[in-house]
């Protein structure tokens, strides 16, 4: 496309050519002059009608754009709400955004509030007062926050400008697990130390005894040593059992086994043993098989622990009733004794490791305090439901319900 100057030159050139042709054709001078004037006027009109060329761009000094606040970006709000742990966005010291977890922990009223008063904990107040200082803020432990016995950690991430994100993490479960592990080690050490001290004491006494006159006493001491050694052995067996069960707790059994056959075998083993009360077992198992997906060895241990507990703590000469009963798509194994019963406040803690209702009696009957803890872990691995019912003076009933295997 021609520019304005090129268009003017072209128009004048055409006028000149037209005048020359008119002269050669014999036109008079007046006609040629009129033709030239009209051509120039037309060229001027065309020149004026053409658009003016755009102005040349001029370099202007660049102006820095203000920083974009991440806290106000819609995608940031979407991400914050998907986080499971509390997140708090602050601008300066003012809370501008919180996620649902932070609202549940601290309340929605903290939005728009000063962060130094939003988190009510003495250590947090002092820590938050140093926001914006020269030294970085290290991760802070909030003990007994928001309730006694709980622990949270708080850390901060600095963004552009005065924007920051505060992260809160619940460490209460980790602390509880650490306490349980410490308690377990302490209890296991205590349980092993007690029979070991008895064994060492009686061995030293035997070493100082001489002569046939001490034979009856020697025999009694050796019997005590054998009993305490057996108690230690059973404790080690139970510790290994609970360790194996916990290692397998996330692996669901896939083999189909007959729970009725496993219970019959367990009862036969207990009745053939030399322990007291084997004849008191009353089995109501029926003739049908009870197929479930399970680990036969672990289910046998579960049945053994429940039935042997009933034999230990039930009254001599009273029945220990073992029953299998189908309930829709599930099968219930229940064991009922007619012992002294258990007070209601003890029942929730019966599956805790080393917990005993009557410690002296448990030791006298040879209990390790791990039997029902093992039962609980085995039932959980097999998707079973453990229930304990008891009434003082009448006895206790322990039941585990398992899902039946699909045909």
Number of domains: 4
Task: Tell me the number of helical segments per DSSP (H or I, 4 or more residues long).
Answer: 12
CATH topology name of the largest domain:
Heat Shock Protein 90
Distance between the termini: 86 Å
Query: What's the architecture of the largest domain, going by CATH?
Result: 2-Layer Sandwich
Mean pLDDT: 80
Radius of gyration, taken over Cα atoms and rounded to an integer in Å: 46 Å
* Helix share, percent: 40-55%
Give the SSE string: HHHEEHHHEEEHHEHEEHEEHHEE
List unreliable stretches of 5+ residues.
none
Strand content: 15-25%
Tell me about the biggest sheet? 5 strands, antiparallel
> In which order are the strands of the major sheet placed?
2-1-5-4-3
Q: CATH class of the largest domain, anyone?
A: Alpha Beta
* Number of strand elements: 12
CATH superfamily of the largest domain: Histidine kinase-like ATPase, C-terminal domain
Shape summary: elongated
Verbal overview:
This protein is α+β, with helices and mostly antiparallel strands and 407 residues long. It has four domains: 4-49; 70-170, 2-Layer Sandwich (Beta-Lactamase); 174-245, Signal transduction histidine kinase, dimerisation/phosphotransfer (DHp) domain (Helix Hairpins), CATH 1.10.287.130; 251-403, Heat Shock Protein 90. It is 46% helix and 17% strand. The protein contains twelve helices and twelve strands. It has a five-stranded antiparallel β-sheet, with helices on both faces. A five-stranded mixed β-sheet has the order 7-9-10-12-11, covered by helices on one side. A two-stranded antiparallel sheet has the order 6-8. Helix 7 packs antiparallel against helix 8, helix 9 (259-272) packs across helix 10 (296-313) and helix 10 packs antiparallel against helix 12 (371-381). It is elongated and about 165 Å long. The chain starts with a helix and ends with a strand. The mean pLDDT is 80.
């Amino acid at each position: 496309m021609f520019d304005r100057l090129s268009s003017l030159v072209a128009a004048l050139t055409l006028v000149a050519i037209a005048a020359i042709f008119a002269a050669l054709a014999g036109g008079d001078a007046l006609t040629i002059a009129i033709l030239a004037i009209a051509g120039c006027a037309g060229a001027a009109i065309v020149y004026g009608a053409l658009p003016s060329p755009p102005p040349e761009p001029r370099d202007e000094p660049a102006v820095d754009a203000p920083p974009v606040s991440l806290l106000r970006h819609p995608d940031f709000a979407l991400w914050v709400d998907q986080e499971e742990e509390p997140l708090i966005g602050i601008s300066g010291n003012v809370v501008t955004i919180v996620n649902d977890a932070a609202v549940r922990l601290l309340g929605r009223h903290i939005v728009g509030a000063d962060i130094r008063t939003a988190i009510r904990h003495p250590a947090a107040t002092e820590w938050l007062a140093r926001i914006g200082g020269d030294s970085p803020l290290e991760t802070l432990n909030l003990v007994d926050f928001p309730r006694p016995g709980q622990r949270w950690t708080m850390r901060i991430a600095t963004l552009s400008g005065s924007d920051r994100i505060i992260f809160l993490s619940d460490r209460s479960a980790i602390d509880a697990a650490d306490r349980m592990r410490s308690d377990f080690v302490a209890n296991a050490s205590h349980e092993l130390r007690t029979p070991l001290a008895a064994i060492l004491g009686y061995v030293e006494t035997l070493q100082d005894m001489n002569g046939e006159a001490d034979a009856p006493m020697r025999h009694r001491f050796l019997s005590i040593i054998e009993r305490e050694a057996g108690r230690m052995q059973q404790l080690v067996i139970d510790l290994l059992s609970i360790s194996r069960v916990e290692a397998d707790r996330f692996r669901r059994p896939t083999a189909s086994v007959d729970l009725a056959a496993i219970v019959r075998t367990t009862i036969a083993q207990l009745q053939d043993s030399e322990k007291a009360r084997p004849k008191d077992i009353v089995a109501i198992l029926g003739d049908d098989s009870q197929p479930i997906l399970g680990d036969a060895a672990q289910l046998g241990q579960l049945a053994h622990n429940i039935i042997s507990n009933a034999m230990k703590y039930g009254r001599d000469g009273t029945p220990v009733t073992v029953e299998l009963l189908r309930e829709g798509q599930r099968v219930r194994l229940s064991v009922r004794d007619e012992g002294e019963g258990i007070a209601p406040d003890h029942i929730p803690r019966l599956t805790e490791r080393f917990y005993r209702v009557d410690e002296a009696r448990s030791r006298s009957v040879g209990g390790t305090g791990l039997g029902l803890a093992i039962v609980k872990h085995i039932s959980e691995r097999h998707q079973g439901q453990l229930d304990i019912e008891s009434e003082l003076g009448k006895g206790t009933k322990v039941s585990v319900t398992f899902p039946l295997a699909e045909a």
